[in-house]
């Protein structure tokens, strides 16, 4: 398909060409902010019209570009950050960041499981104590009733 300045582009092609998410294009179509046409179940946008629109309106990057930037930033920060002695990644063994992350994730899971087990034990202990207190209440109420009837 020939893409001149006045051509109609499908959403996906325009999205790739101008680095605008398809959801942004759909929002613009819904708001009727752009010239579009609907042929054979597909939307087409006038290429020249959106160029003007992109300059007039602040561009909001798509989620995928936000996620990619976040991953790149976090990766850069992880490389620059001074490792904690407990979570140090041994570089001499050639351990990859992914395997180190998996190891840390496994450690977190073990700690979380241990906390859950401790909480479950506390719940069981409190249930037993509650049952004992209920039994004591019944005994005291029975004794109180017996003393009143005398």
Describe this structure in words.
By secondary structure, the protein is mostly helical. The protein is 65% helix and 8% strand. Mean pLDDT is 75; it is low at 49-68 and 74-85. It is built from 5 helices and 3 strands. Among the domains are: 8-56; 115-150. It is elongated and about 105 Å long.
Number of helices: 5
Order of helices and strands: EHHEEHHH
Distance between the terminal alpha carbons, to the nearest Å? 103 Å
Largest sheet data: 3 strands, antiparallel
Total count of strands:
3
- State the oligomer: single chain
Question: Outline of this structure?
Answer:
By secondary structure, the protein is mostly helical. It is built from five helices and three strands; from the N terminus they run βααββααα.
Itemize the secondary structure elements and their pairings.
Layout: E1 8-10, H1 11-18, H2 22-30, E2 36-39, E3 42-46, H3 47-56, H4 63-80, H5 97-149
Antiparallel strand pairs: 1-3, 2-3
Summary keywords:
about 150 residues; mainly alpha; 5 helices; 3 strands
């Amino acid at each position: 398909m020939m893409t001149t300045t006045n051509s109609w582009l499908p959403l996906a092609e325009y999205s790739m060409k101008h680095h605008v998410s398809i959801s942004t294009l759909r929002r613009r179509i819904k708001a009727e902010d752009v010239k579009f046409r609907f042929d054979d179940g597909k939307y087409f946008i006038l290429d020249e019209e959106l160029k003007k629109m992109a300059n007039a309106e602040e561009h909001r990057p798509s989620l995928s570009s936000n996620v990619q930037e976040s991953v790149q930033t976090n990766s850069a920060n992880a490389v620059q950050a001074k490792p904690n002695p407990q979570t140090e990644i041994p570089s001499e063994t050639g351990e990859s960041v992914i395997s180190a992350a998996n190891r840390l994730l496994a450690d977190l899971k073990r700690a979380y499981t241990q906390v859950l087990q401790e909480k479950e034990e506390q719940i069981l202990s409190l249930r037993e104590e509650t049952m004992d207190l209920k039994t004591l209440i019944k005994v005291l109420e029975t004794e109180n009733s017996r003393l009143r009837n005398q």
